[in-house]
Structures are given as C-alpha cells and as structure tokens.
Design goal:
With 233 residues, this protein is of the alpha/beta class. The protein has helices spanning 19-29, 46-52, 66-79, 99-107, 128-145, 161-170, 177-188, 212-232; strands spanning 6-12, 34-40, 56-60, 84-87, 112-116, 157-159, 193-197. The chain has a 7-stranded mixed β-sheet with strand order 3-2-1-4-6-5-7, sandwiched between helices. α2 links the parallel β2 and β3. α5 runs parallel beside α8. The protein is globular. The mean pLDDT is 87.
Length: 233
C-alpha cells in the first residue's frame, strides 16, 4: 500500500440505504485513507448517515451530477494536500479491496487508473446497446490514450496529484463527461492512462440508473459526447 496521503471521494445522490455500509467498508479496508462523501443534493438522509459512519461530508445545495460533485472532491483534495484521490461509487458496487491495486499503478507512474470491469476479473456483464457503445468507445479511446482500455465508462478510478490538479479546475460536468471526456482530456494533455481488472458487485439497494429504454438512447449520446470531447480537447 502506498505511503502517500489518499482521499477516497464518494459522490452520492439519495443513497441513504447504502452509504453507511460503503463508508464503513472503505474505512475498514483502507484505514490509512480519508473518506469524503459529496452529497449531491440528496433529498434523503444520505449526508447524516455518511457522517455518522465516519466520513467527512460536503453537501451541495442542489444536484450538480457526478461531474460537478467530483470536481468539488478534487478541489478539496488539492487544497488539503492529498497525493492521490480515488473515486468510489456510493451504491456499493465498487469493492474497495481493489483500491491498493489502482494506487500501485499510480505509484508506478500512471496519472489516471481505471478499475476495468471487462478486463478478466469477475463476471459483471452488460448487454445490448449499452454494451455495444462501451466496446466502441473503448476502441476509440484506446487509440486516443495509446493503451488498451476495455471499460472507459467505469467510475472506479485513482488519480495522481498532477491529474487531481487538472481535474480540480477542468473536470467535465456534462453528461458522461466524468467518464468519456475525462479520458480524452487526460490523454490529450499528455497524462498516462492505465487500467487494472476489477470485479463489480451487484447493488443491493436503490434502483439501477439505466433502464432498457435509457440503454437504447445511451449509444447515440455516448458518441455525441465523444465527438464533442475530441473537438474541445
């Protein structure tokens, strides 16, 4: 495990049933890391339960989306001198036992390390238009980043101090900006992007964010985001 100061950032929206368990598990698995929950305008007790579980909590007055919440998290990390930041989802699907592997890649020189769900670990599956979009996106973004990437929409990530500094000022806040556009931004600015295999767990509370109808729309939106990211960056 790295000796660097590490902040685990958990963006959360209406996750009162899961957040306490996620915070406690992260603290148990990563006792040397600090935990910051960004309550992204929740209408339930997410903030209170995260705080009671031992996390530091920042509360946004209204919902900004994952991109806005993560930009706040990176600003917090940079301003308080952290060396690494790790993004973990609030629904419990990300297993914090993989965090040391992500951080090891950062210690080896990577700036942005993705926890990849389709790289050989676990049996997580996505089917239909959403899976097709993921594969096409991964093919294009692998060429942009100059390395093989199999899961470019994963939100399970670790970042170096230089990467955190860029994200604190320029983290995309638009739809899918927190995944697709961040990769384009990092690669085009010369940062090193890598991935490590991780297994994904099934969420036990709340509702999945993608219904079959939304999945069908996902394909077109994802490539529009990619096109705009390539033009802007």
């Amino acid at each position: 495990m790295t000796s660097a100061r590490v902040l685990v950032i958990i963006p959360a929206l209406n996750e009162q049933d899961a957040i306490a368990g996620v915070v406690r598990e992260v603290r148990e698995c990563l006792p040397d890391c600090d935990v910051l929950v960004i309550d992204d305008g929740s209408r339930d007790d997410t903030a209170a339960r995260a705080r009671a579980a031992g996390a530091r909590v920042a509360v946004l007055p209204y919902n900004l989306g994952v991109g806005g919440a993560m930009r706040l998290g990176y600003r917090y990390a940079v301003s308080r001198g952290y060396d690494r930041a790790v993004q973990v989802d609030a629904d419990g699907q990300h297993d914090p036992r993989f965090v040391p592997e992500l951080l090891a890649r950062v210690d080896e020189g990577a700036d942005l390390v993705i926890g990849a769900r389709f790289a050989g670990a676990g049996d997580y599956e996505v089917r239909g238009p959403r899976r097709w979009a993921m594969r096409l996106l991964s093919g294009v973004l692998s060429r942009v980043a100059g390395t093989q990437l199999t899961d470019t929409t994963s939100g399970f990530r670790a970042t170096s101090r230089p990467m955190m500094t860029l994200f604190a000022d320029a983290y995309p806040v638009e739809y899918l900006g927190d995944t697709v556009e961040t990769l384009v931004l990092a690669a085009r600015r010369g940062y090193t992007v890598r991935q490590v295999p991780v297994s994904m767990r099934v969420r036990t509370t709340g509702r999945p964010s993608h219904s079959p109808t939304k999945a069908a729309i996902y394909l077109g939106r994802a490539f529009l985001v990619l096109l705009l990211a390539l033009i802007r960056n």
